[in-house]
Write a structure and sequence with these properties.
It contains 2 helices and no strands. It is mainly alpha-helical. The radius of gyration is 21 Å and the shape is rod-shaped. It starts with a helix and ends with a helix. This is RDD family protein. It comes from Microvirga arabica. Keywords: Membrane, Transmembrane, Transmembrane helix.
Length: 73
Amino acid sequence: MAVNPVLAPIGRIKELKAQRAVGTFRGYDNAVFDVVVTIIVSHALWIFAVIVPLIFAAITYHEVFGWVLDGRT
């Protein structure tokens, strides 16, 4: 999951190269748009898959074990 923001655009670029070889390439404007949207979506999904659970885990850890760190008994 950590490499998805990097690998997703690479896969999309390979697909666009294959389209150009076959002759179904739609143009560079659409290709750039597709790659940029792929990067944005893959980063957004990465945030929801990695960062949000880490924040939830940190909040849960603080609620369960926070009294030890605060010095309360």
